[in-house]
Amino acid sequence: MADIIKLLPDHVANQIAAGEVVQRPASVVKELMENAIDAGSTSIKLIIKDGGKTLIQVVDNGVGMSETDARLSFERHATSKISSAQDLFNLETKGFRGEALASIAAIAHVDMQTRTADNEVGTHLKIEGSKIVSQDVVATPKGTSISVKNLFFNIPARRNFLKSNQVELRHITDEFHRVAMVHPDVEFHFYNNGSEIFNLPSTKYRQRIVHVFGSKMEHRLVPVNEETEVVKVSGFICKPEFAKKSRGEQFFFANNRFIKSPYLHHAVVAAFEGLIKSDTYPGYFLFLDVDPSSIDINIHPTKTEVKFDDENTLYAILRSTIKHSLGQFNVAPVLDFDHDPNLDTPYSYKEKGAVIPKVTVDATFNPFQETSAKKNTGSSFRKQSTKGWEDLYEGLGNQHDNHEFSSVVIESESEEQGTLYTGEDAEEHMAGTFQLRRKYVVSTVRSGMLVIHQNRAHERILFEKFLGEITVKEGVSQQLLFPLELTFNKQELAILNEIKDSLTNIGFAFQSLEEETVKVTGVPMMVPESGIGTVLDRLMADYMEGYADGSISQAEMLAKALSRNLAVRTGDVLDQESQLMLVNNLFACKEPTLSPFQKITYTIISEGDIDKKFN
Ligand code: ADP
Ligand code: MG
Questions:
Q1: 601 in contact with ligand 1, CB cutoff 6 A
Q2: Residue 94 CA, closest ligand 1 atom number
Q3: Pocket test for ligand 1, best of 29, 35, 71, 75 (most atoms within 8 A of CB)
Q4: What is the spatial distance between Cα 110 and Cα 74, in angstroms, rounded to a whole number?
Q5: Under-50 pLDDT residues of the chain
Q6: How far apart are CA 560 and CA 564, in angstroms?
Q7: Got the DSSP string for 174-233?
Q8: How far is the centre of ligand 2, averaged over its atoms, from the C-alpha of 83 (Å)?
């Protein structure tokens, strides 16, 4: 039988390797920056156009390459960094596979200029899809400049798979952070579409973190230092009160290499236990130095996954080191967020007889209050309500074919069914609902008992409201008398700029989104002035997370995030008017049965069900 297996031609083999190393523009940035670091550079410039799709250029002032090396560097498995397998266990450099440049050259147009200190002139090479198309002598400063254009020009499927420029830029920024953070002594410049977005002077670790993540970091960082036989831990953690809902400011570096380690992350979180809310993450910038022979970096092409010889010990050391720092800097007060002081029973009361507790309700609290905004939509809103009820009835009618459902309406005191939906003011029907355990709003309907999950129902209502506003731009803004100043770091600013139009549509107004300090001049009616910072923070966090699954539109993602952050919660007291509005607004929704997160919003317990209980 004839052989059917053949050796793949070089360009094909290279594309396969590229598939591993080069997933997106950010991968190229990582490889080029690491090469620049390995070359001993003291100044590195990163230049990006269109999220790296059009151009990625890294200019360094490192050792450069001779003419022969320059050509060789693009061969697969050509590296100056290791010479034997043994070297793999004693790595001092970032690179070692000798594959990156070859992989990049296979799928892009690469232009390299390089010169060593002892050569008067340098080498200029152009390579397209692994082929050298030109080689010249060039006058160029000492060091290397590599530009990568038209990434994936010969793999359209991959090129099409790339996300928007903004998303790709965010991945690039992440890689930039990771390299810049471990090399504070190196100066970095980062230009995007012609404007400088980072200018990081040579400095120390702490200042580098502040330069990268913004001046607000200055007073948040707590130093961590511990040296044991197994590991030297250094770096910073953020004070617990600045724990964020987003993951992002969490960095582990092992032997100066950014690594991902869910296991060690857990150790840090464990040290913060009881100090931060369970849905928030502590910020940290931790440098672990271990014996190079006790860490295996060679398990994944991107080298962010590593294996430590003794992870358990590392875990224990890390946890106690951080606890120690938290204690030492006196940032560990006893906090209990879930604790409700109202539930405290003084010991002496235990023996006393039970008395009916006095219920106090904050009558002025009304999460649905929208003042003028509501007036505008009042009439159409009621029309919608009716429609909503019809929908409900239709749906249920089909399912159950039960005559009783034909009159699913809230029974009002006046027995005048339906009046609720024909233009009268809500107050007249206040007795129609009550709140159960600050969690459910209960009402009666003809067929039985309607139980609404207040949080989920309100999420649904807000979700549809915001989705509408984002798309038709009708959000009502509440102008702030005194603009509120909030500080954001560059990455947060980038996100804010990305979602600015949607935010404006729902009522946010910003003076400018260029500088770290942002002046907020208007907010949606729903958002209390005191909560603006929190709402924006959480919004960005949710938005980032939503981006990961990538399947839904920006509008939908924002509407979801807003609804989640602004909806009344379990535990909130709702006054009569709010309860009634909740019921009405829910059934005015297009999809009242499910929350935006696909959870059931209400249930009807039928008279039959109740009857059964009495048998
Ligand atoms: P690796 O970094 O794993 O060795 P690369 O394909 O990234 O493999 O690079 C191949 C070789 O090219 C390196 O070993 C190094 O000798 C040389 N090289 C790459 N980039 C630079 C640079 N910016 N300055 C000097 N030499 C470089
Ligand atoms: Mg390399």
A1: no
A2: 2
A3: 35
A4: 10
A5: 1-8, 12-13, 16-19, 334-353, 371-431
A6: 6
A7: HHHHHHHHH-TTSEEEEEETTEEEEEE-S--HHHHHHHHH-GGGTTTEEEEEEE-SSEEE
A8: 15
